[in-house]
Amino acid sequence: MSRSEGKAARPRAIRSGPGLFAGLSAKILTLTMLFVLLAEVVIFVPSISAMRLRWLEDRLSAAAAAGIVIDALQPADLPEKARDETLMAAGARAIALRKEGMSQLLASTPITQPIDAVYNLAESAPLDEMRTALWTLLFGGNRLIRAYGPVGDSAMVIDMVLEETALRDAMLVYARDMALLSILISLITATLIFFAIDRIMIGRIRKLTQSMLGFAADPGDPARILAPETGADELSIASRELSAMQTNLQQTLEQQRTLAELGLAVSKINHDMRNILATAQLLSDRLSDVEDPMVKSFAPKLIRTLDRAVGYTGEVLAYGQMSATVLRRALIPLLPLVIDVRDNLGLDGTGGIHFDGDVDPGLMVDADGEQLFRVLHNLARNAHQALFSEGAGGLIRISASRQDGVVVIRVEDNGPGLALKARENLFSAFRGAARSGGTGLGLAIARDLVIAHGGTIRLVEREARGTLFEFTIPDREVKGGGFEN
């Protein structure tokens, strides 16, 4: 074994997948936390607005309760100091009570600054409240505000003036508590989702990933094939399909390795066999000069058998060289190739088989001349052998035409046609032989060469006697139009 072969046989190191917190799990954890926090932010705005409104309503309720008591006890001449202390416990600078169309100032302290904002709690709009709450939270605190609203279900209205500092302090405490609660909720939610998804999905995806990486490192090791799951969800189906694919791929690789080794051995044996057959062919040619009647009777059969064996070895070697074929395409006339095919097969009409080359001398084809000759020669040779096996003569016709940048070439004969087995395995090496004793390599080689040119080849079904193959050779596409040189 050479050094290069030793390196190729050594399995690759298995690449490690991402860790628990470096792959999808970490991304899901982060995204879950961000989404929960985003949801909390969306909820926070109406929540802080509702908190502010409740705070003001509580202050109005406290002021209303104290104001009603004071209003009822005024005849009793409640001391002013006690009245002011009771009312100021509501956190207000001034409190007034409106009833029956009359407004009465119940208590107040000296006010030296103007009132900056007035809020009617009975007619508050949600959007305005949210906008006011955000402004107060971010920029408020030093203003003097006035708020008023009804006292319960009565017709009385309580009106109060108060400083905004206490309101903003309460809002800041509420915002802090909401932020801490949101972070705690996001952590708990994200953690639960993290472990749930990691167990249900990410862990199984990680197993699939490790299996693919391990199999890629050494596809020939049966232990690297994934053990499939039995569930009915998508990942279970994916694991079964991956396991089946790995099994099929391993079998295919093993078959290819075996075929490669067999092909190398066959190629070496075939090369030596061809030399032996060539020697035998020379000796058989000398037998035709012997005058013995018995020798003359079996010599032609021996010569045909040796010719067939030599042809078989040539086809096998040609097919084995297909993978190394490099096309050298150019714009060439098609008619000279057709004439070469005719001359190579000796189709001069003397043997009863006639040839018709129906090709315009000016028709050009964008192809590799040598490889296109092989295609034409293989198809025409199959037709010649089919007609020769009948012994009744016939016609081989090659025609061509250009259609929108594609040259369409047809090779047809009026022979016995293809057998059913040949049609079922058409273009399959060693199975799609067009005649008894053939290898099927001629059609397989022709198909591969046509596909290499970017064309297609097919057997045309028709009612007339004989066989018709049609293949296309498209021009290469180049920028700016025209042919590529």
Kindly describe this structure:
With 485 residues, the chain is of the alpha+beta class. The protein folds into 3 domains: 165 residues, no CATH class; 61 residues; 146 residues, Heat Shock Protein 90 (2-Layer Sandwich), CATH 3.30.565.10. Helices cover 55% and strands 15% of the residues. It contains 11 helices and 12 strands. It has a 5-stranded mixed sheet with strand order 2-1-5-4-3. A 5-stranded mixed sheet has the order 7-9-10-12-11. α7 packs parallel to α11, α8 packs across α9 and α9 runs antiparallel to α11. The radius of gyration is 48 Å and the shape is rod-shaped. The relative contact order is 0.06. The N terminus is likely disordered.
**Helix fraction bin:** 40-55%
Poorly predicted regions: 1-11
Average of the residue pLDDT scores: 78
Instruction: Please outline the major beta sheet.
Output: 5 strands, mixed
Indicate the topology.
Layout: H1 3-9, H2 24-73, H3 80-88, E1 94-99, E2 102-108, E3 117-120, H4 126-139, E4 144-150, E5 157-163, H5 165-217, H6 234-287, H7 293-320, E6 330-333, H8 335-345, E7 353-358, E8 364-367, H9 369-390, E9 394-403, E10 406-413, H10 420-424, H11 441-452, E11 457-459, E12 467-474
